[in-house]
Design brief:
The structure holds two protein chains of two kinds.
Chain A (H helix, E strand, L loop, with lengths): L3 E4 L2 E4 L5 E7 L5 E8 L3 E10 L2 E4 L7 E3 L5 E6 L8 E8 L5 E2 L3 E5 L1
Chain B lengths: L2 E4 L3 E5 L4 E3 L1 E4 L4 E8 L5 E7 L5 E3 L5 E5 L4 E6 L8 E9 L9 E2 L3 E6 L1
Parallel strand pairs in B: 2-12
Antiparallel strand pairs in B: 1-4, 3-9, 5-6, 5-10, 7-8, 8-9, 10-11, 10-12
The chains are: A mainly beta, B mainly beta.
């Protein structure tokens, strides 16, 4: 099993560009999450999903959209990237209680 | 809402010495508690968790944490650290409703630095 995978690993964007981050899990987990990690801030929840076709806002949802069309995939979209969205993005999945994290995507917005 | 406070942003300690990383939380509802470890340029790995039962939980690599409900704490300890324990450690909580479906609330992390 690959566990939780994230695509891409690195990306540099210019302000105003759009992009989609892909998270995939092969563990048949119901719950999936997107977090961002910034220096000295820990991880903060952006959006999450408790099942296929459902999404909900987390602590810092502004500027991001998500979709969960298939149970195994959770997409995070940036419609118009801003320098404040420079961060490391982590996806996680969970059957319940415990979360399993992907390796992260390092995004820089110039 | 929940909040997590990790009292030390950085803890230097000599190899083979004991260490304690402190974590306090605030919540109006019951929570599950976790410690995650992040090695440089990697994702997060679960170190240990408290869901219910015994308040003392242990990991396979010698760490332990004790849930203290009255002090709302979940401090992480290890009696003798190794160079390989150098990493960032995150304390986190989730609400117990729906098996923690609403996600984790993290502390800001503690950087454990092991000195030879």
């Amino acid at each position: 099993n690959a566990g939780v995978t994230q695509t891409p690993k690195f990306r540099v964007l210019k302000t105003g560009q759009s992009m989609t981050l892909l998270c995939a899990q092969d563990m048949n987990h119901e719950y999936m999450y997107w977090y961002r990690q910034d220096p000295g801030m820990g991880l903060r929840l952006i959006h999450y999903s408790v099942g296929e076709g459902t999404t909900a806002k987390g602590e810092v949802p502004d500027g991001y959209n998500v979709s969960r069309l298939k149970k195994q995939n959770f997409l995070l979209g940036l419609e118009s990237a801003a320098p404040s969205q420079t961060s490391v993005y982590f996806c996680a999945s969970s059957p319940q209680n415990e979360q399993f994290f992907g390796p992260g995507t390092r995004l820089t917005v110039l | 809402a929940q909040s997590v406070t990790q009292l030390d942003s950085q803890v230097p300690v000599f190899e083979e010495a004991p260490v304690e990383l402190r974590c306090n939380y605030s919540s109006s509802v019951s929570v599950y508690l976790f410690w995650y470890v992040q090695y440089p340029n990697q994702g997060l790995q679960l170190l240990l968790k408290y869901l219910s039962g015994s308040t003392l939980v242990e990991s396979i690599n010698g760490f332990e944490a004790e849930f203290n409900k009255s002090q709302t704490s979940f401090h992480l300890r290890k009696p003798s650290v190794h160079i390989s324990d150098t990493a960032e450690y995150f304390c986190a909580v989730s609400r117990t409703t729906r098996g923690g479906a609403d996600g984790l609330t993290f502390g800001k992390g503690t950087h454990l630095i092991i000195q030879p």
